[in-house]
Design brief:
By secondary structure, the protein is an alpha/beta fold. The protein has 13 helices and 15 strands. The protein folds into 2 domains: 148 residues, VC0802-like; 201 residues, HUPs (Rossmann fold, 3-Layer(aba) Sandwich), CATH 3.40.50. The protein is elongated.
Length: 364
């Protein structure tokens, strides 16, 4: 069994149970779940990798359960350590049950004595080779030797639904993960580049969504054809302005997806001034076509910080595969850096904006 602990959920006061119930709902596909006061127990085998990516979990341990009795706890510790080789150890007790007859230090000493009597080792309180974690709860004692760190945050589904503009690069998958970590359910929308074979596009994007589904569970993906819109823009818009016009169309289409999905906002992978389209002026031009909330969780991060998270969540190797997104198609070598809303509103007046709804309708 796994004993699962949360952190931020514990600060939610009267709403705490709602967040706990959402977390329970998010992990119940892994096995039988039991909610206790201050922690959750999951009866399952070999699901550490899955638990380590589920938002809301601060840490967990693959535990043995003993009766609320130190003699039985000692027997369980012998079972747990049987076959292990270690030169030194320590016992780390958390006494959640304050009415238990022994203090945490007394439990450490008693159970440490059991280990010393049965294994060839010494006690080492700092930088020990092995730590035995003991949690004294209301009715039972849990024992484990590895405290696995989770991603913390809030359980997916506790903060509403958003739509993420998912490219084939590094940034937007990380942005969607960070919104999941804040409790959002994420719907994905991808714009298919006419310069790429549709099979290659679908494979890469589908793999990214598959990885991210390990975080939030089942995910929905809209694949939006962008060919006709690209042709309209290439024909009528100067190459230095095309990047911003592409993105304005993408936001319009994503708004239609959000309306259909009853989502409360959009998510982008923008990082301020990372590329030309992400200057403050250009972001203002792009975001201005949407009246709702646009969330950009990477806005203050540099590339290395983003890469580090991508590696952690498993999207990095997929994201770095060769792929050209729609915004990079036939744009100027030196695109506009300080765009103005008014200029792009004038450009819009000469375009068939109805193509946004047509592309949305044709999305698969």
């Amino acid at each position: 069994m796994y004993i699962i602990h949360y952190d931020e959920i514990g600060l939610k006061g009267k709403n705490r149970s709602k967040f706990e119930d959402q977390l329970v709902d998010n992990i119940k596909h892994l096995g039988r779940v039991k909610k206790e006061f201050g922690y959750i127990v999951l009866y399952a085998e070999d699901v550490s990798e899955e638990l380590s990516l589920i938002p809301g979990i601060a840490y967990f341990g693959d535990a043995l359960k003993a009766e609320l009795d130190l003699e039985d706890a000692g027997l369980k510790i012998k079972d747990l350590l049987s076959g292990k080789s270690f030169a030194n150890f320590r016992i780390d007790t958390s006494r959640h049950n304050k009415s238990f007859s022994k203090t945490s230090q007394q439990v450490n000493e008693i159970l440490g004595g059991v280990v010393l009597d049965n294994f060839d080792c010494k006690v080492k309180l700092k930088n020990s080779e092995l730590t035995v974690y003991v949690e004294v709860c209301n009715k039972v004692i849990y024992i484990y030797t590895e405290k696995v760190k989770g991603v913390s945050g809030l359980p997916v589904g506790s903060a509403g639904k958003v739509v993420c503009l998912l490219s084939g690069g590094l940034d937007s998958p990380v942005a969607s993960f960070l919104m999941m970590k804040r409790g959002c359910s994420v719907v994905f929308v991808h714009f298919v580049n006419k310069t790429q074979q549709s099979c290659a596009v679908k494979n890469k994007i589908s793999e990214l969504v598959k990885v991210l589904s390990k975080v939030q569970g089942e995910s929905k993906l809209y694949m939006v054809p962008f060919d006709e819109i690209q042709q309209e823009i290439i024909t009528k818009v100067d190459s230095k302005d095309r990047m911003i016009v592409y993105r304005r169309f993408m936001v319009r289409i994503s708004e239609l997806v959000a309306l259909k999905e009853k989502a409360l906002g959009l998510v982008t992978g923008d990082s301020l001034s990372q590329v030309a389209s992400q200057t403050l002026e250009n972001l203002d031009c792009v975001y201005s076509v949407y009246d709702g909330v646009i969330l950009s969780p990477l806005i203050g991060m540099n590339k290395q910080e983003i890469v580090n998270i991508a590696r952690k969540i498993g999207t990095y190797e997929i994201s770095i595969l060769p792929y050209g997104d729609c915004c990079s198609f036939l744009i100027a070598k030196h695109p506009v850096i300080k765009g103005r809303r008014r200029d792009f509103e004038i450009i819009d007046s000469g375009l068939n904006l109805g193509l946004a709804e047509k592309a949305f309708v044709e999305a698969t």
